Each structure stands twice: as C-alpha cells, then as structure tokens.
Amino acid sequence: MSLAQIQRIMNARSVAIYGASDDISKWGGGLMHQLRRHGWQGKIFPINRKEFVQGQKAYLDIGSIPEPVDLACVAVPVDQVGRVIGECADVGVAACLIISSNFAEAGEDGLRRQEELVEIASARGTRLLGPNCMGLMNTHAQFNLCNSASSEYYDHTPSGPIGIASQSGALMGTMLARSYTCGIGLSSGISVGNQADLEVADFFEYLIDDENTRIICLYIEEMRSPERFRELAQRSIAAGKPVLLVKAGRSEGGAHAVQSHTGSLAGTHESLAAVCHQLGVVLLDDVIDMIDIAMAWVSVGDWSEGGVAVATASGGGGALAMDALDAAGFSLPTLGASTQAALGRWAPPTHLQLPLDVGVLASHNPPRDLPQGILESLKAVMADDAVGAGIYVMTTQKNAQACWEAVIETAKTCGKPYVFVNQSSEVGSAASRAMREASLLEVTSLTSATTVLGGLRDIHRALTLPQRTAAVPPLDASVAALLPAEDGEPVTISEAETKAMLAAAGLPVPRQAMARDADEASRIAQEIGFPVVLKIDATGVTHKSDMGGVAVNLTTDSAVRAAFKSIAAAAERHLQPGQMQGCLVQQMVPGDVELIVGARWDAQFGTMVVVGVGGTLVELLHDVQILPAPFTREEVLPQLQRLKLYPLLTGYRGARPVDLDRLVDTVCRIGDFAASLGPRLLEFDANPVRISGSNICIADARAVIR
Amino acid sequence: MSLAQIQRIMNARSVAIYGASDDISKWGGGLMHQLRRHGWQGKIFPINRKEFVQGQKAYLDIGSIPEPVDLACVAVPVDQVGRVIGECADVGVAACLIISSNFAEAGEDGLRRQEELVEIASARGTRLLGPNCMGLMNTHAQFNLCNSASSEYYDHTPSGPIGIASQSGALMGTMLARSYTCGIGLSSGISVGNQADLEVADFFEYLIDDENTRIICLYIEEMRSPERFRELAQRSIAAGKPVLLVKAGRSEGGAHAVQSHTGSLAGTHESLAAVCHQLGVVLLDDVIDMIDIAMAWVSVGDWSEGGVAVATASGGGGALAMDALDAAGFSLPTLGASTQAALGRWAPPTHLQLPLDVGVLASHNPPRDLPQGILESLKAVMADDAVGAGIYVMTTQKNAQACWEAVIETAKTCGKPYVFVNQSSEVGSAASRAMREASLLEVTSLTSATTVLGGLRDIHRALTLPQRTAAVPPLDASVAALLPAEDGEPVTISEAETKAMLAAAGLPVPRQAMARDADEASRIAQEIGFPVVLKIDATGVTHKSDMGGVAVNLTTDSAVRAAFKSIAAAAERHLQPGQMQGCLVQQMVPGDVELIVGARWDAQFGTMVVVGVGGTLVELLHDVQILPAPFTREEVLPQLQRLKLYPLLTGYRGARPVDLDRLVDTVCRIGDFAASLGPRLLEFDANPVRISGSNICIADARAVIR
Question: 263-282 in B: which are within 8 Å (CB) of A?
Fold first, then answer.
C-alpha cells in the first residue's frame, strides 16, 4: 500500500509548489529553482497569486491546475499548512511534502498542529511527508526536490547506487556532499522530518525495492516501528542490499537534542545495538563514516577474508598504520613465498615483507621503471592469499603520482577492498582529484581507514549470516497458571514464586521449600539432604546477603537451626515486624563458575536476554552481552565468546571447564521462557546460575511481572 | 655541549652541499633548490666537479671553499659518505647532515657502515645528523634545508610557534602540510633519520630553549635515551611548553615496520604510556592528531574547566555531536539563567538550552538581524561559567557564512577553546578558506574534534601538574644483605625469601615459618596461632594451588597435620622426588579485598609498579594501572581510581571499605622497595595483598632477582 504511493512520489511526473516565489532564497522559491536547475523533465505548477513565478505560469490554488498532480510541496507559514493540505486532499494529490516547520519539534502546541494535519490528510487518503523536512531526490530521474545547501552547490545530481533515508535533512545533505566530493552518486535521498505520517521505514522499503539502489544508509532519531525495521532489515540483507544505520540519541544529551529536534524519544541504545548485531545491520556513530563505508563497498567491493596489507612511501607512516590496524583488531598478513619472489624483482631482499615501502622501491630501481615496479608490487601483494584487503598511506612523498595511479589501477582490478588514505592535506590535492575522477573513496586519517575496513567486514558478515529461524514460542500453560492476575501494574514476585515458574518451564532449579520456623527448616533440610542454604523470604528485600539474610554451606541439623535464628534476629534489627515470611531452605548447588542470565522487556525491541560471567563483579565490569529473544543455539556461543571473562568457562588456570553445550541449551531455554512471557515479563534475573561441569542450576532468581 | 652545536646548525650562515646538481629531482639538487627558493639569506656552496651548479659557483671539495662552513649537507652514494665526512671533519665543519640512505635501516652491513661514519666524525669533533634523514628547517630564518614533497609544494616557509622533531622525514612533511593547510606555521622542523649521532632528544632540548617555539611535537620510533627524555619533558612542561608525542611500534607489526625503517627496537608501549601520564606528556596515535592539537592550543588557547557547548544548524548534527562528546567523557553543560536570558533575545523559549540550534535562530529572526543573532548567541554561550569549550558542527547548511564568521569572531575572543568541525566536504570549501585565513584549526570529523578537545584537556593537566619530588631511595642495608650473590643471571627466589626481604624493608607480611614435616608444621602453627595456611615450598612451582599445594583456613592441629600429608601426596604425584622442600606455615590473613601489586624492570624506563584489584581475575581483565617508580603518595590514589574495580575498595554493596590512606602508603613503600633495588629486581609480584579495613598484609609474594 505505502510502497505504491511512495513509488508514485519518487517518480512523480507533476509537482505543485505552494510557496513558490521568485526569491530563491526562500524555501518554496529555492525548491522550484533546484528542481528546474537539476534538469527534471516533469511538470512544475507554482502556486502563487502572481501570474508568473520564475517565468512560469502560476496558479491561484491546486484546484485551478488543469491536470492531475502527483505531489504537492508545501512551504507556507505554519498557520496555512492545514488549509493547503485540505485543498490538496480535495483534488486527490497523492502526497504532500511539508517543508514548513514549527510542529512537533516546537513543543505541545506544535504537536497538536501536527496531529491536525494527519487527521485532515488521512481522512481523505492523502499521504504526508514531513513536516519540518528538507525534501527528496531521485537522481535517476534528475528529480531534485531538495532545498539543502548541497543541492544549491551542485548544478546537477550525479546518480549512483547509494540510497539514503534520513530524519535529518542537513545530515542527508552532508552525506550527499561527501559522496559527490568523492565522485560517487546517490540513487535516492529522502529527508522525512517529523514523520507525522510517512516514516523512514516506508522509504527503507522503497529503497529495498528500488533497482537503482545497491546499499542503504539510514539516519534515525526515533525508531517509529521497530518490528517493521527488523523485518525490512532482514529482507534487505537477504536481497543482498547491506543496511547501514546511524541512530542519534545514544547519550542523555544527544537524546535531549533529538527530542527538541523532532519531538521524538530515543530508545535504549544497547538493545538497538544487539538487534543490529543479530540482523547484520551495520550500526555507526557518524554519518560521514556511514557514507564512506557505503562508498567503499560500491567502489571497491566486498570484504575478503585475510589480513590488511599496508603500502606506503614512509617507514613511519607504515609503522603507524600497522599500529592502528592492530589496535582495531585486523590481522597483519605475512606474504607467501611466491609473492616475495614477485616483489624480489623490484625490492631488495631486506624488504620483501609488509608494509610495502615504495620509498625503498624508488631507491632500488631506475626512475623510468619505477611506476611499473610500484604497480606490479601492489598487485603482487594484493594477489597473496593471506591478504584480504589493502590500504595505501600517502604521506607527503616523492613519486606521488606513480603511487596514486598504481593504487587506482590496483583498487579497480584486485577484487579485494582497497582504501586510499591521503594524509598529505593540500600537498596531496592532485591525488584527491585523481581519486574523485576514478570514483574511489579517499579518507584522510588512519581512524577513518580502520572504520571503513571494519564496516566492510561487518557488511560481509551480514551478507553471509544464516537465515534467522527463531520464533516466539507459545506460553506454556503450566507457567501461565503461576502468573499473578493481569491488572497492568508491575509486581515483584519472590524467589520461590520465580523458581516455581522456572521449574514449570523445565529449567533447572535447586530442590527447596519454605520454612516458617527453625523446626520446619530442620525438617526440610533433612528431606533435601545436606548441605543446604537458608535465605530470608521477606517482601521488598532484594539484596538478601547485605542484611544478613543468607547462610550457606549448612552441613548439620544444628547449623540449620542456628542459622534460622540468626536470620530472624537480623530481620528484627533491619526489617519491619511481620515483613519476614520465613526462610527458603535450599539444596546447596555446587559451582565452579557463576553466570548471570537476565531478561528485560524493551519497549521498542521486545525481550532482551543479558548474559554475563562472574557473580557480583558483572555489575562493576559491565562485561555482558545482549541477545534479543528468541534466538537460536547458533547465536549463543559467539556472544559468550565476546565476554572478557569467557576464559572462566573453558577451564581457566586448571579449573574444570564448563559443559558449553549444556550451557548454550540453558541460555536458549531461558530465552524461550522470557520470550514466551513477552511484555508481561518486565524484568528477570537468574543470578547466579551456578555451573559445575555439566551440572547447571539457577541458584537464585527474581522477576517483575506485569 | 650539544645545544650550542645544534644552535649553530639551526642558525647556520653557510651550507655546503655534497651532491648538489642542476637536476632538482635529485636529493642534492632539490635541497639546494629549496634552500634558495624559500629565501634563505645564508651562503650556499655547491660541491661538484662542474664550474657552476644552478647558476652558482661550485667547489671541487669542501677544502676549496674559502670560508668556514657551518653545515655540510651530504647527498652522495652510500660508498662515498665516509670519505666526505672525513673531508668535512678535517676542515672543522660543525655538523654533517646525511641524506644518503642504506645504513642501519638496511641490515647488518648497513649498520656497520653507519658505525664507521660515527667513528670518523666523533674522532674529529664533527656532529652527524642522519643518515637516512630528510633535512631540517628553521622557518624564522627562512632556512628550509628539507627536501620533502611539502617543501617542494610551497614556495615559502610560513613561520609559527610549533616545533617538530621527527624520526620520519615523511611524517614531518605530513605535519607541515597539515599545518600550512590550516594557515598555521612551524618554528622548526628536524628530521633526524637513523640517529647515528644527534638524536630526537638533542633537538627536543633545542626546541625547549628556542624562543620561537611554544609547543613541541615529537615523532619517535626508537627512544634512544629515555632518562634524558624524562628530564627534558619535565623541563619543557615546567617552562610552559607542552610536549606531544607519537611513538610508533605499539603493535608487533608496527614494531617490525619500525625495525626495518631505522634499525631500532621498539620499547614497551605500556611503560611509555605510564611515564607520559606521570610527566604530562600527551601521547597520541597519529601525527595528524598531534599537529591538530598543537594548532588548536596555539590558536584557540588553553583548556578551561567545564563542559563542551555544541552549536550547529542541524538538529541531527547536534545530537550526534552530543553523543560523541558524551562517549569521549566530556560533560554537556546546562546553561545558566543569565545565558538563557541573553539567548532569549534571539531564540524562542523552547530553544534556550544546548545544543544551540542556529537553524532555529534563522526561522525566528529576520534575515538582516541573523548574523548579529548568531554571533551574540555563540558569545553568550561561551561566556557561561558552566561552559569550558565549544564546538561548531557545520553540516551542509543555510546561512553558512554568517555562522563561520561568528565562529571565527567567537574563537578569537572568548578565551576558551573553540573547535570548528566542517562536515560539509567541498560544499563547505569557502568556510575552509576563511578558517585558514583566520589561522584557525578546522577538523572534518567528530572523532577528530573529540581527540583535539581531549588533547587540550591533557595539555592543561600537564601544565598544572605539581612538580615531581619523588627520588630513588637508597637500598636498605638489611634488604641488601638478603640478596643472592650478583652474578648477572636471573634467579627466581622463593616465597619465604621474598617475604624476608619485604619484612626487612618494613612491609607487612604474615607471621610464618618453614616446616619440613607434619610435626614441625603442627608446632609452628601453635606458635603462630590458628587459623593457618599451608603452602608447598618447592623449586620451580609458581601456581601452587593448581597442583594441590595449598590448604587454607586450618583451625586445628589435626587439620594442619592432615593438610601437610595431603600436600606431600600431591607433590609425589606432580613433582620430581626431592623437589618439595617442605611447607610454609603461615598466619591466615583476613581480607575483604585482594590486590595485586607487582613491579617490573623496564629496560628503557626502569622500575614500573603495577597495581590491580580482584585476585586471579586481574589477569583476564587487564584491569591494572602502571606507576613508574619512585612515585609520591599523591600519584597513587588517582591511579587506583582509574581501575574499573576501584569500587571494591570503597565499600561495594555493603562491604567494609578499605583504609585508602594505609593502602596508598603500602603501595608507595612497595614502590620504594622496588625502586631501591633498581635493575636487580627484574620481576616482583605481591599477590594477593589482602586488605581488611586498615589491616593490610602481603599474603603471597615472589621475585626474580638478577
């Protein structure tokens, strides 16, 4: 439904412009000017009381236009927008692009005004883009209806394979300027502004369908429909179109800035990052990095397995590049014998390894042979099986032209990613021009180079991820029977209740029972078998051990009785009378290692399972990984391996290793348990999960149910 | 001694050029050409068989020159360099600058050739710069004796306050190109090459003394004289001249690249980082970052306490900037009431907080007032007490000129650092030109902006560090008496021996004694008092508990006897007969928290003390800080606070806090102990140091003594 409408917008054959004027410094005048200047072949209908605008016949209102209009562009004062949209809807315009601002981004009054627009439009079947947006472009139709400073700067609209949908018009213009500066074009660019009606996801869908688009860049401040985003991302990647995303509002300050900008609330960044990792969406911090990665992918191709080969004319530049690559986690390849033999034609025996030093080639070869020597050496290095990608670091250097020409030829033919790092500022401006003419990305810092290489690696991972198969399992009837009544309020349920639910879901919990006095505790301990643990059961107490409410490793009847009395005494000191219900008597679970497995309902992305190793230190170290649930067994182990404390699971310093197969299974089942409860499970902690070989048991747990 | 010689080199009035020719693409010809072209007023004596070189009278050899020569420049084939240097030395030339390469960087033969040069020169009192270097420049004398591509590109040598000494000529040229591109000049630049004689430190000293230099940038591959580097860094910072450093060879690959480049070995990066932190040297990864920070400091001034204020025309750009600043650890200030009142003249009430959105100013004010509004708003924000620095993020935007003009005016007058981030690529080229004309730094990414702000913050810290007072204490006679005989070989000494030395140094160790059998163990335990710990004493066993060689919390005589037998049985299973000497019986030390305090002799920087919290996990987490010893009490606490697990010391989750004063004292005394042993203490581990309130005790320790 939306898709067909958006295709009509993006391929509009007629556009009416409310606010069109002869003054091209005004929004409406500027838009009309850009549209004509960039060579669009469609029909433009300026709407103005004058007879002519920019030399073209003007109309008093949209009703006076004698032909159907695909798209109306609205750049009028805020109090007239509602009327204009009504007029447009009356004559069956497909969509209104609202440039005017002062809506949701300007507080509550503005939000009300914006809601009124949506009402007017949706009642009559017209779609809205904006308000507070900067327009759109479809370069393959020379359709540049975008009033950004970039559109003003360029007098044509180079087309290319990169599609952009952005909540910020300025950042769309920024990406456009960066891509044109590198001689690479966009397919489409859409600034969606406040997303009163049509949103980023609608244009995301369009770009997936658009045959001119090979890679998609999204800038989002508010993720309006996370479920749809997930679906579209999977669809796009399955179709071989990588998805890159910048999401603003990571910090509190950034979220505040976003709020004042488009009236939207930021989601939780960690959950988003986990979802992106799961789907293969490449999540980035900056739009320039995003467009750089997209440009690298369309110009130099997909990531190859292997290390990154450095070439440079400067020993120092090479050393710093190796340091930067190593710090960013890239391997530094060792060249094979046949590559060394090929290099041996041009380099002395002392210089047959990386970094390839073209300064050495220059002193080793006569000037007339040097260009050939550089080219053949670069190509020999890139042909080595151990080499997955290359970078050339250009400091201020001799023989620069021979080098950049060899880089261009190598990048175009080697079939592996090749990144050109020009660190020579204006001294290297001729190289910049040459790279631009060759439509190859140029970056100016090692940081950018490693970011681009990292992005290419992530894209490769995305395109080779297995198809996702995990589905939300149905809620088990025996678990459902234990849920508190559904009244919308969150309730913290006790350890005993939580464990009963876990047991009903088939998860491993210790043998246990509640004791109201020392006699009962003694009887239960004998039933369970020694050693046991006693834990206070008292409403509102979460950190039980901090108040003296826990006694462990009780091996005798008398120890159990003494512990119960001591806990009761602690309760008398610290709690209200009657707050203590009794003590949970529990089998003492052996454990070489302790895990925390938690779950949280994220308002945007649903159930998030958190896994960490190491007991109480987890909270200090933030050494956790997030798995959006449901997930498959295959997803769990790579996440565990990303934990700093992962070695504790594999037999650290002579300790017994954990049965990883069983552990993965337990984490999956906890994920299914949490996912099956959906939004009812607000928070859940299994902490610690104690593991001793293949013995896995949830020693303590709590939950907040809604 | 060196200083006067280097002053004569840098202010040379006459230069002889071996290898001078009419072909300016050759090294000697190029050097002569640059020197003339950049307007140097001194005398140039080309040395060549021809009568004239580049139109100037040439000489057959240096002896034929009728005047004294300050500096001889040597750009001749490698096999002639020795002879040339001999000639120069014979006539009393102060120094030879050797451009020729193929010395230490080219393997062992080259190293031998290089050593011969040094012999020839030092025997006759001539100093050498290089070989394998690119030359030097003193811009205040238009003295550009540097054949880099940068010198070729520019036909003049802008002077400025930034001094550079670099082991890499290409990277010096790269920094020079970057600074001139920003309209900021250097004072001096020296490429030292292989440092056969004169080294980076010599020119570092010169730059400290040079009144034209306000800030010093060093690029080093091999730290030739670390002690001198330390002294000079302290002297420079004390004189108010910040020191920035890039040290290549951090990674294994980078170190390899360094080695092949100048025949030098890389030191340990972590020790260097600790030394830099201690002295206030700003250690960086990249030379462009280094020169950017230097330019920011000379152009916008010293860091102010407070948060970083963001201004931009783009809501999205502002949000991403806030995210980037937050992630880099900068605070985002809240504007005070008077600032909001000042902003209220230009902005609507919804937009009186940061980021300052000039897009909103544009829609809120008539165009003719806008430039004034932007300028006053920027100034008002920067005058706020909560604001310590500012950045303007320029996306592709309307009213760009009004904005960059306001930024220039604000940066020049506000007295706080201001960074201009131009993200608009070629669309923003007019802004780049304006910034250059104003001699203000422009960066193109948020990453660079936060790096520059971080550098300014570090420079401010350096310039306000207290004067260092710690000195290496003398070796205590009672400790010295316990040292093994000095035969140059490293010896691992036992726990008992190590603790005896610690006790002699007045450090807290548990009561303990060695038992050869169970009876003796029982007797000692009764003397010490229960509970005790038994630990195997066996040569070559370091991880005692992994082999069953430790028994803790022994509370009775029979438990001690049983434990001894069990350890002896473990020794029988795991060790050679006779390897077990007995068991150490030791007072059981209480501990709420465990620390590791180690020391290591670093071949470059001497004694390094390593501190970490958390027992065995320390090794997995690498959560340690390094303190170069000796150090003062004042240095210890800030380092402890940089540990991720620092909260464990201050009473985490209801635990008893550690007596930090006592702890700092103990760490200091361990530092003094290690420093007093100097190079004889190769390695030392106090692990764990157990702490319970103000009770601190080194429960286990080992050392490697030479």
Answer: none
